Amino acid sequence: MHVYSYANKDEMIAAIFKQKLVYPTGTDMVYSDLNFILLGMIIEKVDEESLDKSLKTHVFEPLEMNNTGYCLNENKRNFVPTEKTDKRGLIQGEVHDETAYMLNGVSGNAGLFSTIGDLKNFCIMYLQKGKYKGKTIIPSDMIDTLFNYNFMGRTLGWQRWNKNSKTLWHTGFTGTSIALDLDHSTFFICLTNRVNPTRKNQKWINVRRLAVSLFFNSPEQLP
After folding, report:
1. What is the tens place of the pLDDT at every residue in 12-52?
2. What b/e readout covers 119-129, taking b as 16+ CB neighbours within 10 angstroms?
3. Which of 74, 75, 90, 179 has the most CB atoms within 10 Å of its CB?
């Protein structure tokens, strides 16, 4: 999808529903974020409210993630700038992802802003099998289910570092990453701006993978 070829959110959503399904074969893996965009829309239908309000009610507030959300109306100086682009100039305090930007910054695939302090609470919840301060945020059996899947090293919403351990990690295009070791009750959070000033900077990607491998104390088990 060429996101800037659409004039508004409605055109973008219509284009998403017209996308043809791709069926990988053998050892091929095709990355797409359209599935999480659709998941966000499903959540809005089920909860009968916008995605940002739903997540705030059911996730962020119970986890005391007071500095996390979409389209935070704060001074841009509080946000790390990402890429400098021809169309948008220096992106700071706005979602970097082009598709989420066309969806007014609230999308299931991108757009959240957060801090290390807030993400710490999120990770603790996973290490406590979905609970935080006695409240169930995610059912424990749902977390167990994550380790029943290993599609080319990926499971539901995460990548698996090793199929023989309860180790998960997830990265963001701008340079962010979270790694969870549920076997040893540890987590690793890294927030960087590797696309500043341009996404052509690829150096951090290998360094990030090395950092995660040091955290897990083992090399990644590739498919």
Report:
1. 889 888 888 877 676 677 778 888 999 999 999 999 999 99
2. bebbbebbbbe
3. 179
204-209 long-range Cβ contacts below 8 angstroms, 24+ apart: 204/175, 208/171, 208/175, 208/177
SS3 187: strand
Q: Which two tokens stand for residue 218?
A: 């083992």
Sign, CA dihedral 93-97-102-107, equals negative
Q: In this structure, what token pair is assigned to residue 166?
A: 């309860």
This prediction's pTM: 0.91
DSSP classification of residue 190:
E
Three-point CA angle 71, 76, 81, nearest 5°: 95
Tell me: the pLDDT tens digits for 141-173?
Answer: 999 999 998 887 889 999 999 989 999 999 999
User: What is the C-alpha to C-alpha distance for residues 128 and 86, in angstroms, rounded to an integer?
Assistant: 44
Tokens coding 214 = 């040091």
Structure tokens at 190: 């890294």
Length of the chain: 223
CB 96 within 8 A of CB 110: yes
Backbone dihedral angles phi then psi of residue 128, each to the nearest 5 degrees: -100, 25
